[in-house]
User: Which sequence fits this backbone?
């Protein structure tokens, strides 16, 4: 197998590894770094379960080659909050009851995180656009939008 | 995933060396929202990927003597939020705003959208609208070719294996107003069922110049010259709009012939055209 050196920042830490040239960023995060908060759903860029932030912007890590992230900054759900210290967006998801099975939640939280960074006071419509690349098969969309609104209010304080 | 080598050039020269050495065995990776999927599905099996997204010279948008030049590795998000694009060629901003999803728009590039040569490529009708010209570079030299000539059917282009699409050059009419609309099965992540783009230059209440392009009607997006000729010199009023819509319906019916989607699309084009004309009307007032 072809291997090449990959060096990038993941959740603030500089990481250098020899990894195969044919793996996706999703595979690198889950199988090499064991950051399993990033989920694989459809593997086709339709569901957004594998969303991570690449240089601050949400992308589908199932459609990014691992080596394409060389020299760049990746943030996964593990970089947003910890079980002891949840991020305000994560708290808002709990408070609003926006988590059902939880599979889409990491991607939803990251999409919301990127939105609120750019636009701290989004309208409901803007929130819907921001999470339009993330599918929730429990279909609890209203509560997810409520949660993002709540998070915006919390962070605004 | 299948075996594939990977190169990450940082300059155009390095990329051209790789493409010349790899011939048709290397494939350009310009975002990957389609290519990574095609690799997994084994629809393509290149020996190596040449990732051009780390070449800073292939990113950005600039205006030069009335022309708008968009570098190939510029993402849809970057195009949709560019002040130049929003002011001068809003039809392209409309198109880039509705590509896939926010994630896809942050990763996918204008160059990738062109080179894939999909009939439903979202940005291409708007690029074709403004007489888009592709600038192709290789170690052998540089050439410019109209997008309508570059695109040669579903998934086919006139690009040689050693050539790199460096930029697309758009020539909007000075003082024009434009709009684009896409009809998909749902809002996000839908492949265009039918799309259109219109550019108009007004002289008082009349249309002085017009361009019209349609997508998802033929193997590649194309300029609807019949509709353009009809619009030239007409009053911009309800009568003209309704006549235009009737002509567009006929054109779509002609192009699609007996295809299963024809009965749907020849009606749907009416709604698409109305939406585009509404956008132009709103923008004209600004």
Assistant:
């Amino acid at each position: 197998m072809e291997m090449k050196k990959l060096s990038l920042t993941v959740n603030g830490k500089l990481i250098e590894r020899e990894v195969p040239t044919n793996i996706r960023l999703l595979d690198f995060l889950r199988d090499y770094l064991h950051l399993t908060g990033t989920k694989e759903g459809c593997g086709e860029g339709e569901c957004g379960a594998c969303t991570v932030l690449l240089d601050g912007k949400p992308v589908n890590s199932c459609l990014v080659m691992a080596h394409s992230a060389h020299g760049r900054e990746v943030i996964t759900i593990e970089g947003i909050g910890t079980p002891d210290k949840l991020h305000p967006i994560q708290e808002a998801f709990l408070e609003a009851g926006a988590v059902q099975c939880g599979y889409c939640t990491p991607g939803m939280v990251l999409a919301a995180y990127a939105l609120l960074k750019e636009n701290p006071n989004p309208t409901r419509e803007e929130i819907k656009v921001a999470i339009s690349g993330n599918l929730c098969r429990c279909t609890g969309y209203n509560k997810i939008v409520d949660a993002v609104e709540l998070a915006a209010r919390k962070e605004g304080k | 995933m299948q075996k594939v080598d990977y190169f990450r050039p940082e300059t155009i020269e390095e990329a051209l060396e790789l493409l010349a050495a790899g011939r048709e065995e290397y494939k350009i990776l310009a975002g990957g929202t389609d290519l990574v999927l095609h690799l997994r599905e084994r629809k393509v099996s290149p020996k190596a990927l040449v990732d051009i997204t780390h070449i800073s010279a292939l990113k950005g948008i600039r205006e030069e003597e009335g022309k708008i030049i968009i570098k190939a590795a510029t993402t849809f998000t970057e195009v949709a939020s560019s002040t130049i694009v929003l002011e001068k060629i809003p039809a392209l901003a409309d198109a880039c705003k509705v590509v896939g999803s926010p994630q896809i728009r942050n990763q996918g590039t204008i160059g990738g959208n062109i080179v894939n040569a999909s009939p439903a490529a979202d940005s291409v009708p708007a690029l074709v609208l403004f007489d888009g010209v592709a600038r192709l570079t290789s170690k052998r030299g540089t050439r410019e070719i109209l997008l309508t000539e570059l695109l040669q059917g579903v998934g086919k282009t006139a690009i040689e294996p050693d050539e790199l699409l460096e930029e697309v050059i758009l020539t909007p009419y000075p003082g024009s107003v434009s709009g684009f609309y896409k009809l998909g099965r749902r809002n996000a992540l839908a492949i265009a069922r039918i799309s259109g783009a219109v550019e108009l230059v007004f002289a008082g209440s009349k249309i002085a110049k017009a361009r019209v392009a349609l997508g998802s009607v033929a193997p590649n997006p194309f300029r609807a010259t019949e509709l353009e000729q009809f619009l030239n010199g007409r009053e911009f009023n309800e009568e003209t709009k309704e006549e235009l819509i009737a002509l567009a319906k006929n054109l779509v019916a002609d192009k699609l012939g007996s295809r299963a989607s024809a009965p749907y699309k020849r009606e749907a084009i009416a709604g698409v055209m109305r939406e585009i004309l509404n956008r132009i009307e709103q923008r004209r007032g600004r």
About this structure: Chain B has a mean pLDDT of 94. The CA atoms of residues 55 and 111 of chain B lie 13 Å apart.
